[in-house]
Design brief:
Length: 118
Amino acid sequence: MHLLVPVGIEIADGKFLPLFPKDATIPTSSSSIFGTAIDDQGFMDVHVLQGERPDAKDCATLGRYRLEDLPKGPKGHVQFQITFGISSTGLLNLQAMELITGYPIRITGPADRIVSIH
C-alpha cells in the first residue's frame, strides 16, 4: 500500500511541511525534534494534514493533537521528539518523548484518523 498524497504538519508560518511523500510505502514512520516556543510552555498543538499545497489552509486536516504537561523551562530548552506513524491500514499514530528524561509525553486528539492510501 502507498499514500495517495503527502502527509505532514502545519508549521508556525501556516505552511504545510510534508513528513511523508506521496506514494510512500506503508507502514511507515518518521520522527522529528521540536522545542518549546515560549518560556514555561505547558503544551503544544500539532495539526496533521494531507495534501499537496504549500499552505496548510489548502490541505485536508487529519487531526489536531495536543502534547500536554510539557516540562517547564526557558524557550527552546525543553525539546521533545514526535514520532508519526502510519499503519498498513492507513491508521495515523503519534507518540512523543521528552528528550532529556526520555519520559513519554501525553498526547490528546482523535484516535482513529485514516490517511488516503491505494
